[in-house]
Design a protein that fits this description.
This protein has two domains: 4-86, Methyltransferase, Methionine Synthase (B12-binding Domains), Chain A, domain 1; 96-222, Rossmann fold (3-Layer(aba) Sandwich), CATH 3.40.50. The chain has a five-stranded parallel beta sheet, sandwiched between helices. The relative contact order is 0.11. Helix 5 links the parallel strand 1 and strand 2 (124-127). It is built from ten helices and five strands; from the N terminus they run H-H-H-H-E-H-E-H-E-H-H-E-H-E-H. It is α/β, with parallel strands linked by helices and 223 residues long.
């Protein structure tokens, strides 16, 4: 079992490896974390996801561009491949999500990070990819009976499709929860479009999803 000090050191190292796209270092540190008996989930959330939050900020501030960001993601996935088999899911079944980037939008870095974090936490993720036709979200939710549909948009032009899509999903399944995210999304967008919530990063998205899942299951019990 790794000491608290050692875990801090490993988390800092993983964050640095992701932020500075040190692909080999990220994998090596993940292997060291497993060898030391560190908490793989904590390494993933605080180390890898924490690092990608900084990368996202650098991308938004034009300090990083697509090539650097893709290398950062490569470092993250290299370490995640090592850590993921060692993540202990806590008791109780997790939910299912349908996830995709809106039609007309190919910016899928945030979507891919959310997928990695949710899968690491034991969720089943039905990833539709990017530039997804509106009806595909509706069809996939019905096919999988997923608890949550997560819609991503990084451009105002693709974001507007959410306003049409959300009622389409709710009409087929009024109980499904809808989370929207991406650079142009705000709390006002959530209210205006009829979504349930938004999140500004992957760890917050996971927390919001867990809250919504708990709410859904309480509703089923009371019914």
């Amino acid at each position: 079992m790794a000491t608290a000090e050692k875990e801090k050191e490993l988390i800092a190292g993983l964050r640095d490896a992701v932020i500075n796209y040190k692909i080999a270092d990220a994998k090596k540190l993940a292997e060291e974390a497993i060898k030391e008996g560190a908490d793989a989930y904590k390494m993933t959330m605080e180390g890898l996801a924490g690092g990608m939050e900084t990368v996202s900020e650098k991308f938004d501030n034009h300090e990083y561009f697509v090539p650097e960001t893709l290398l950062c993601a490569k470092a993250l996935y290299g370490a995640l491949d090592v850590l993921k088999p060692h993540i202990k899911s806590d008791s109780g079944s997790k939910g299912q999500v349908v996830l995709g980037v809106m039609l007309g939008d190919v910016h899928d870095l945030g979507k891919n990070l959310i997928k990695a974090i949710f899968e690491s936490a034991g969720w089943t993720v039905h990833d539709l990819g990017r530039d997804v036709p509106l009806k595909s979200f509706v069809e996939e939710q019905l096919r999988t009976d997923s608890d949550i549909v997560m819609l991503s948009a990084m451009m105002t032009t693709s974001m507007v499709g959410m306003k049409k899509l959300i009622p389409m999903i709710k009409e087929k399944n009024p109980n499904v929860k809808i989370m929207i995210g991406g650079a142009p999304i705000s709390e006002k967008t959530v209210d205006d479009y009829g979504a349930d919530t938004t999140a500004d990063n992957a760890p917050n998205a996971l927390r919001e999803a867990m809250n919504m899942l708990e709410s859904l299951r309480k509703g089923m019990v009371s019914a």
